[in-house]
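Q: Please design a sequence for this.
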């Protein structure tokens, strides 16, 4: 079952969901809008090899905004840190952002129970578009897991505690598939 905006607000009050900073004006009918951090990263190379540690350069969005170019992957982050050990968090791009031709996440909109940190966004665009730090870029929503009384494992993976956009850590798994 998905939480309504009122249920999200109540869960924040009870400490079951942490959103820092929290501003009730960003609360929607069944989600909470997250803002774009000023820090972003882009790849130094035309090709990224999944078996090697990717090389990205980090920069900051200037006051006049950042012009996104089609065909470029931008790793960005939310301003807010979120955490919950009770619900399954998920993010999705806001429809207003999608209507600008911006994709907020390539495939990583599904979170894990127990994750704490900012969200890394895999941003791309269809045509050139200018974006700004602190704009509401995506929305987080929460599902109540069905546990049937069975304890579940909290997330404790390679992205826990992230504060800025994190590069892919899939290269650490290469022994599973790289010959």
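A: Design:
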């Amino acid at each position: 079952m998905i939480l309504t905006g009122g249920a999200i607000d109540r869960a924040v009050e009870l400490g079951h969901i942490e959103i820092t900073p929290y501003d009730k004006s960003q609360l929607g009918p069944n989600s909470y809008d997250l803002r774009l951090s000023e820090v972003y990263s882009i790849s130094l190379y035309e090709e990224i090899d999944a078996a090697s540690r990717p090389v990205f350069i980090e920069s900051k969005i200037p006051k006049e905004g950042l012009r996104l170019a089609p065909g470029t992957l931008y790793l960005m982050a939310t301003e807010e840190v979120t955490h919950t050990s009770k619900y399954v968090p998920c993010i999705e791009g806001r429809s207003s952002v999608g209507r600008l031709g911006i994709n907020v996440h390539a495939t990583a909109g599904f979170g894990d129970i127990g994750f704490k940190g900012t969200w890394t966004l895999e941003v791309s665009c269809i045509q050139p578009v200018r974006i700004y730090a602190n704009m509401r870029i995506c929305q987080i929503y929460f599902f109540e897991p069905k546990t049937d009384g069975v304890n579940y494992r909290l997330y404790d993976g390679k992205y826990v505690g992230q504060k800025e956009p994190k590069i892919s850590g899939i290269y650490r798994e290469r022994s599973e598939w790289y010959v």
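Q: Thanks. Anything notable?
A: Helices lie at 5-14, 95-98. The chain has a mean pLDDT of 93.
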